[in-house]
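Researcher: Here's the sequence for the chain we discussed earlier.
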Amino acid sequence: MTEMEYTKLGDTGLEVSRLCLGCMNFGSDREWMMGDEEASVELIGRAIDSGINFLDTANVYSQGESEEIVGRAIESYDREELVIATKVFGQMGEGPNKQGLSRKHIIDQAEASLDRLGTDYIDLYQIHRWDETTPIEETLDALDYLVETGKVRYVGASTMMGWQFTKALYESDINDYRRFVSMQPEYNLVDRHEEENVLPVCADQNVGVIPWSPLAGGFLTGKYDRDTDPDEGRAATDEHTHERFTEENWAVLDEVRAIADEKDVTPAQVSLAWLLHKDVVDSPILGPRSLDHLEENLAALDVSLSADEMERLEAPKQPVWSRARGDL
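Model: Thanks. This is the structure I predict for it:
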C-alpha cells in the first residue's frame, strides 16, 4: 500500500499531503462530473483515509454544490488534521457585486463558503483569477481582514501572468498585507507554458505550487488515441482538452507510454511522478472520478524517474508562454 508523503506549503509551516484532492468533479454542473453525492462523499473519505489531508474546491464549482459535498464528507474527520482550500472570483449570481475581487464580494463569498463547507475557518483562501477591474490593494486588504478575523489561515492565488503575481507580492510586502503563500497554475507534461511565466516567480519567492490539470484533462492518462475522435470522457465535450490533440503532444504521450511500459506502471502514474519530481511543485491537484482512479493516482508516489527519463519526457516539447494562456 502506498504511504502518503507530506511537505511544507511554500515557505509556511503548513504540512500538506504530496497529492491534493481536487473537488471540481463533485457536482453536477457539467456532464463529465460525477453527479452522485454519495459516491463523491465515499471518494473523499477514501482519499482522507489514504493520507490525503489537502482538499481543494471553489465557490463556483457547480455553484457551491462542490463545497456542500466537501462539507458533508469531512464532518466525521478531525478538522485540525485537514487543510481545506477554496477560491473566490467567479460569478455567483445575477446582478452587480456577484463576482470579482472587490472587498464586498470577497467577504460575502468567504462567509457563504464557510456556511457551505460547515466549518469555522478556511485554511487556504485563493483568488481564482486576476481581477483587472479592482485594485489589487483592495483585494489584498480584504484577504488580510479575513485572516485577522480568524476566518482564513492562509491566502493563495491561481492562474495569472507572472507580472501580476509579482505585483501582488510586492504590494503585500510594502503595505504589510498577508502574502500569497501558494499559486495554482495549469501545469503538466503537455501544458508547460508556466515554466516561462509564473513558475520562476514562485521558485524565487518560495511560493508553494499546487498544479491544476496535472493529467491534462485526461489526455496524459493515455485513454485517447491519435486516429480516433473522442466520443466519451472530458475531451468529448471540453474544448480545451480537445485542443491538446496536437502532434507535438502526441509525441510527449508516446514517451509517457514507453516509460510506463518499461516500469510496468500506467501513463497517469508516470505523468504525476514527473510533476512530483519537479522541485518547484508541492502538491499536484488530482481530479479522480472513481475509487479506481484515486488508487491509481496515489500509486504515482511510488514511481521513481531518473534524470534521463525526465529528459526523455520533456524533450518533445519546448515551453512557450502566450497571453492567451492567461485567460484560461
